[in-house]
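User: Predict the complex.
Assistant: Input components as received:
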Amino acid sequence: MKALKPWFACCLSMLMLFFTVIPLASAAQDNQKVITVGLSADFPPYEFHKKIDGTDQIVGSDVEIAKRIAADMGATLQIQDIPFDSLLPALNSGRIDMIISGMTPTEERRQNVDFSESYYISRQVIMTRVEDKDKYTSVDSLQGASIGVQKGSIQEDIAKDIKDAKLTSVDRIADIVLSLESGRVDAAVMEGPVAEGQVANHDDLAITSATIPDSDTEMAIAVKKGNAELLGHINGTLAKLKQGDQVKKFVQDATALNSGEQQKSNNIFTIFWDYRQYYMKGIQYTLLLSAAGVLFGFLIGLVVSLFRLSNVGILRWIAVTYTEILRGTPMLVQLLIIHYGIAQTFHIEFSVLESGIITLSINSSAYLAEIFRAGIQGVDRGQMEAARSLGMSHGMTMRSIIIPQAVKSVLPAIGNEFVVIIKESSIVSFIGVADLMFQAQAVRSITYSALNPLLIAAAIYFIMTFVLSKLLGMLERRWSVSDKR
Amino acid sequence: MINVKGLKKSFGKNEVLTGIDVEIAQGEVVVVIGPSGSGKSTFLRCLNLLEQPTAGEIYFEDELITQRKYDIDNARKKMGMVFQHFNLFPHKTILQNLTLAPIKVKKTNPAEAEKIAMELLHTVGLEDKRDTYPNQLSGGQKQRIAIARALAMQPHVMLFDEPTSALDPEMVGEVLEVMQKLAHEGMTMVIVTHEMGFAREVGDRIIFMDGGQIVEQGPPEQVFGAPTHPRTQDFLSKVL
């Protein structure tokens, strides 16, 4: 086994490089006090993406509040855009300091986090297709209807109380709009100002006259349980804001800002052209993630496959367990465990990009390990015998003779894995990595166009994978030519 | 040089070698013949421990190589082996095939290793192939390269495991010629082969194996001319 050591050293140093280089980028502003706010930026007018002076910014009334809190504390504000139902885990794992995302302090949430005084009261409305506007004039008329709500939201709780209602819970407001427009749901329970923003941009949608009893909901800021110091600062700022009725003004300003953003045309080409920078940035992240995932997956997978083929029982057992667990669990689950679970349990905080790369790397390493194993076993036994008969050690033979041939024979399969990873990397948008899927979601919430930004993303994914497959095919043919006599 | 005592080898329940005692002297050319399945290849592969013997002792240059802690790589440096299917390294050039082990194992400096390699390529008549890859060679050329590759380690003994069995008939001659040259230069050789004419001509001693045992051995003229054992007579009557 001693001959394997240089390999270990090599892989270890690669891994260490990986863990040291990447955080450098994010650790630069440690000496200044930073306060990190988590929000789900698809909720105009409270929080949403907007292109201002050509750059994408997260704006809204909640953002204004966050700015005031940070200013009062003398801290720099950092905003993280996280899907709504991932906000609480993000807070509890310490990735964000507070949530300002139109969140209502329900009993259930109070058990997990502490809330500030409420800063705004919103009312809930029912949104439907225009032609159904007069069909649903009261909550009772919604009996038996299918209703779209945002997953983990207060609206979901409200809708649950409607008799016989069939709930469809989705991640994004844009998905609710799409569900309404495509007839998958009949109505949606939504925050008043949020619904107004949607109706203003979708001619086929309307707000009904129905009022939902006892549905006025408070909004408050969540902090980690027991963080009384921060809560004190927050309540202090909120008290000041309340005096001048500032919050209401923030909401009005944000509504105006939002409606000023009328998309000229929802033509798919216009959207692509107007938001090409979003997509370009997304492509960069997607390619970076995929390339890093395959590279590290390659190295880890090679080590795992050597473990798998080793004579040492415990190493074989480790390798089998590793590959079976990683191949037998969904990548999304792995991603959330690595991003939130590890931070909470071991207090190791990976940035979203690191978590994304780690997940993609270990996940693809499990598949690549099996590919390598087949490749190594596929090398003619005579190669090992010939090298050993020349006095070369087992490790030396593996390195100079077996692995180079195995790698060459599995290169097409590795290329395939790269193609697969490009597509599967889209799940990292769940934790907020600004990849192609994430950007598509941002464009959806900016443009109020629910479908076209996704079609653009689909086209880009397709072009990337198609071109890559063709390139790999060409490479493969060239290699196989040199193998022939 | 090689001393084998009570060598036994089983694969599972199948006993392939049932007890072999033989001594091979410096400079001797020993040719092992016998019907297929007689254990002659297994015997040869036991000599450099490509097969781990089930029982028995093997001494190489007075060292017991079958003892537990013995570093077999040490002995293999001095025992060249040529295989039926050549087993050249397909991802390396011919020159690299010859220089890889000397550089990696013997730590010969690359220039020196290349010099030795080129001399050997000259000996086997394939200098012009130095930068080509094995797949571009004919079977006979591959086997000549394989012999040169083993010789590049400057071994004290060469083991040949049916070196011509995988070759087209018209290519057998060129390989035997190289082996003959080697024998004349005084190399100690153990050859498993079906080429009876070659065995008779080049061998100092012929070993006839059957059923995992040495049935008869002696100088070629004795074994081929006047075999004493009925199984030897039977075998030779079929192949000659």
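The two ends of chain B are 31 Å apart (CA to CA).
Let me know if you want any component modeled separately.
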